[in-house]
Amino acid sequence: MQAITPVTITNKAAEEIKNIMENKNIPEGYLLRIGIKGSGGCAGFEYMLGFDKKKDTDLEYNVAGVPVLVEKKHTMYLLDLEVDFHEGADARGFTFVKKQPA
Q1: Which sign does the torsion angle of CA 98, 101, 44, 4 carry?
Q2: Nearest in space to 6 (alpha carbons), one of 85, 92, 71
Q3: Of 98, 82, 91, which Cα lies nearest the Cα of 5?
Q4: pTM for the whole thing?
Q5: pLDDT in tens, 17-54
Q6: How far is Cα 8 from Cα 18, in angstroms, rounded to an integer?
Q7: Position 101 pLDDT exceeds 90
Q8: CA 32 from centroid of its chain's CA atoms
């Protein structure tokens, strides 16, 4: 496990992730993967969450009690990213907030 994590996960998001891992038939050995899609050009990046097996190019972190995989080359783009979970009358799902460094 790495000491400094590029992302944070709120307690609400961690609860939902753990619930999914326990109740949605996620295969054994699969961990939460946080990454990016897109080139970072004009459209920017799109963040993604999913479940995957660890690859040789991954770093593994423990964030809020959740085992998290991040591809090494995505790490710098995920710095200061917070994963949250929104549950409202109109929608529910994970959100990504890029925090400004202190």
Answers
A1: negative
A2: 71
A3: 82
A4: 0.86
A5: 999 999 999 999 999 999 998 766 666 779 999 999 99
A6: 15
A7: no
A8: 7
